[in-house]
Design a protein that fits this description.
Chain lengths: ~525, ~300
């Protein structure tokens, strides 16, 4: 049976309670009848039947480029860069798409007699990937062949010798790149596109870049002008990356971009979590028993065990497309494939937007979802997963569900702790934060040391998370978090509510007693096409 | 009176008749070797007995003696689980078969038969029963082409059974490989099923040919990408491809994947059969090479 498209459900008297993700747990909430609607994602599209053949075909039949085999020659300097741990979410089952693609690229390189090959995890200012994470992404064969000799490594944006400025855009934006990548005869970028803002020039202009360049588009002005940053035609972030791309095209290395898309099969169509991607009225007796058992078990588990259990989940994603060649030509096709899976047409805005936030976001893989990341996931990612207009009207209310614990991963997020304690205790205004604090965190030697030698996000990273939510903060009249740690929620500048009913009551100050409500049923990921 | 004496005292028809000297006795149909009947070993009762034997006896022994490191299983991810496969491996030791039967991926290993040398595993009724029950082995003629063996194997593959076979035809006498015979390739073409090459490393030190008791050691199984028969390809050429695939896996196991790919494309993959030299030089070369388990073997002679 063909996968069913996403759709909008108008809530009536017979609509069952609706699933809200709630960190490492779930809530079932009854939405008010007659004035609520739920946006459901499409079912997973079928994956490519023979991914390895599709990969080889894409490499030899690229868009606006010579085939990969024609770009390879003995004695050349070849660099392969790939997306880091933040993609896809949750991490996918082995073999990871990056492994399949990198093996195919290396096989072509071996056939062409290329010896000088280096492989770089393009992580920009994210934390370095551990050996296990690198092995998962590129596979044991590639890891064992390249890592022991130092030819497979994490990008280091703070290595003074390892970065190079390639030029400046007409807007005065510095374009910076990893030196090895910049000085290669060919840079092959291996991407996984989960949402529409991934890929394109963002892969190279951001992934292999550093603070010198990123400060030009990772700032409040850019984010507030991106409505939304998921919509390429209305994203200032996208425009900035494309301007940088022009400089890369003129002054940078030859780039062979390989982009792939995955379906939205985050929790599987069978297995313990499959209930999470079924529509509630289609839950079978087994699904209901699984859900109840899961809820009962999760309640009794300590937080660390819950986190470990969810972190171990690997999504059975399947590749739905692969295209290679010129960056811009490839990205056009990729975006169409992403939209094919994600777009759900929605008419009009409502007074309230509700969403359940899951246990994972791009920056807490194998880690802890701290309050700043809760804000970023809700107001940054989910709020911006629209095309046209936001799902909630200007001045409306956002109700999110997440435990929002006052808890941080001390190794991964050291600068987040200080940001939360020192900066947010003074102000939550992104513009003030940017002007007053960003530079001191970005240039702090200790954070720099931890980023380069430990597994820490860069000192400036929590600021970017905060800027990610700045469009939503300017748009919304109030933000309420259901079931969160009240102290942490208040520190974020939001209002805590114990129950969903309380949250609706609190929202009535802003939107009146009978507001219209949209529930954003995500994940699996969907993107609302709001007219 | 002993039972034997008592039986001898019984007369026909209580005991079997004697044959008159002038009469040519009627030839018994052969029931051993390649003619050993094994259909009973795939019936539910035998399958259950084999499962119990594997779980209770074979598995603990494999864990203690040669628990292997598995590499390359991800290469089988795209295969249809209902599709039978032919697993081909190099063959060093009697340890190979139990090791593979326990560590080949599910679901194929749950419905698998083994091609076993008819002269070695089915010389008499008792050995044949043991081989068929424990390994789900079918007798394969290894010295000459035998139509009956091939048809029997093909009919089982057509019925959904996967095959484990050693195309070298027997265990390596000195640790180096032998030329691959064409049986596996013939079946792959005849039944249109993929061949999965497997390189087994380390079992030659656990129990080499000529040794009757194993010494625990480290082993590695490296699985290669499935090979499909190409249009118009004959068994001889496919057998060469299979041998080449196992040789590439051996290279991958002893160096790394990237070096192995470069040598494969340059046509310089080391041969499985080792140097063409006198035996002591082959033994020297074997002891100098790494064994594919990631650990160098101990040299038989000191460095001079």
């Amino acid at each position: 049976m063909a996968p069913r498209p996403g759709f909008v459900l108008e809530v009536d008297g017979s609509t069952p309670p609706i699933l809200f993700h709630h960190g490492e747990g779930f809530r079932l909430e009854k939405l008010p009848v007659g004035r609520s609607r739920v946006i459901y994602p499409a079912e997973p599209l079928p994956g490519l039947k023979d991914p390895d053949t599709a990969i080889r075909h894409a490499l030899e039949h690229p868009y606006d480029s010579e085939p990969l085999s024609a770009l390879l020659f003995p004695g050349m300097k070849l660099t392969i860069a790939f997306d880091d741990i933040s993609l896809p979410l949750p991490p996918m089952r082995r073999p990871d798409i990056r492994q399949r693609v990198i093996e195919a690229v290396l096989d072509s390189a071996a056939a062409a007699g290329v010896d000088d090959v280096e492989i770089i995890a393009a992580l920009a200012l994210h934390r370095r990937m551990t050996e296990a994470e690198l092995r998962h992404a590129v596979g044991d064969r590639v890891y064992d062949a390249f890592a022991p000799t130092g030819k497979l490594y994490n990008h280091d944006a703070e290595d003074p010798e390892g970065m190079v400025i390639l030029g400046t855009t007409p807007h005065g934006e510095d374009v910076q790149m990893n030196r090895r990548a910049a000085e290669s005869d060919l840079l092959v970028y291996v991407n996984i596109n989960l949402v529409s803002m991934d890929g394109g020039w963002k892969s190279t202009a951001t992934g292999l870049s550093g603070y010198t360049a990123l400060r030009h588009n990772h700032n409040v002005k850019t984010m507030q002008a991106s409505k939304s940053f998921m919509d390429q035609h209305r994203s200032e972030l996208h425009s900035s990356n494309w301007r940088m791309g022009k400089v890369l095209r003129q002054s940078g290395p030859k780039i062979f971009q390989i982009e792939t898309t995955v379906n939205n099969n985050s929790f599987g169509t069978s297995g313990p979590l499959s209930v999470l991607q079924k529509r509630e009225w289609e839950w079978s007796a087994k699904d209901r028993a699984t859900f109840l058992g899961m809820q009962a078990g999760l309640k009794r588990m300590p937080a660390s065990a819950r986190r470990k259990m969810f972190s171990s989940w690997q999504a059975p994603y399947e590749m739905t497309s692969i295209q290679a060649g010129d960056v811009e030509s490839v990205h056009k096709v990729t975006t169409e494939h992403v939209y094919r899976q994600h777009l759900v047409p929605v008419e009009g805005q409502t007074d309230i937007l509700t969403m359940g936030l899951p246990y994972i976001c791009p920056y807490n893989v194998n880690s802890i979802m701290n309050p700043i990341l809760v804000m970023c996931l809700g107001l940054g990612y989910f709020f911006n997963l629209y095309r046209g207009r936001p799902l909630v009207r200007e001045g409306g209310v956002l109700i999110m569900s997440h435990p929002t614990p006052w808890e941080f991963h001390p190794v991964h997020h050291p600068s987040y702790i200080d940001f939360f304690e020192q900066v947010l205790s003074e102000t939550t205004d992104p513009l003030v934060i940017e002007q007053k604090y960003e530079k001191s965190f970005a240039e702090d030697e200790w954070y720099r040391h931890l980023y380069r030698t430990s597994y820490a996000y860069h000192g400036v990273h929590p600021f970017y998370m905060w800027y990610w939510g700045s469009h939503a903060m300017a748009h919304l009249g109030r933000v309420i978090i259901v079931g969160g740690d009240p102290r942490a929620v208040r520190r974020l500048g939001f209002m805590p509510a114990s129950t969903f009913a309380d949250a609706l009551e609190m929202a009535s100050d802003v939107v009146g007693r009978h507001p219209t409500i949209t529930h954003y049923h995500n994940p699996p990921v969907l993107m609302a096409d709001v007219t | 009176m002993t039972p034997r004496q008592w039986a001898r005292r019984m007369s026909f028809p209580l005991r079997s008749p004697s044959v008159p000297a002038s009469v040519q006795p009627k030839a018994e149909p052969p029931r051993t070797g390649v003619d050993f009947e094994t259909a009973w070993a795939r019936k539910p009762a035998a399958r259950i007995a084999r499962r119990v034997l594997h779980e209770v006896v074979v598995e603990p022994v494999v864990r203690v003696v040669a628990d292997p490191n598995l590499r390359g299983l991800d290469r089988l991810e795209d295969l249809d689980e209902d599709q039978p496969l032919i697993f081909v491996a190099n063959h060093h030791s009697h340890v190979d078969t139990p090791l593979l039967l326990r560590r080949l991926p599910k679901p194929w290993r749950t419905k698998m038969f083994v091609g076993a040398a008819a002269d070695y595993f089915f010389p008499n009724r008792l050995a044949g029963i043991a081989s068929a029950l424990a390994l789900n082995a079918i007798p394969i003629e290894r010295t000459k082409v035998n139509r009956r063996s091939a048809m029997h194997a093909a009919s089982l593959i057509d019925a959904g059974w996967s095959l484990l076979i050693y195309p070298e035809g027997g265990r390596s006498p000195d640790g180096w490989g032998q030329e691959f015979k064409g049986g596996a390739a013939y079946l792959a073409i005849r039944c249109e099923v993929p061949v999965v090459p497997v390189y087994v490393a380390g079992t030659d030190r656990i129990m080499p040919k000529g040794k009757s008791f194993p010494t625990p050691g480290s082993t590695t199984l490296t699985f290669g990408p499935p090979l499909h028969a190409q249009p118009g390809e004959d068994a001889r050429r496919m057998a060469q491809r299979i041998e080449q695939a196992v040789a590439t896996l051996a290279d991958e196991a002893t160096s790394d994947w990237w070096q192995a790919r470069k040598r494969a494309h340059a046509g310089t993959t080391p041969s499985l059969s080792g140097p063409n030299a006198v035996s002591w030089r082959r033994a020297w070369a074997k002891s100098a090479s790494r064994n594919g388990t990631g650990k160098p073997t101990r040299r038989r002679w000191p460095e001079l």
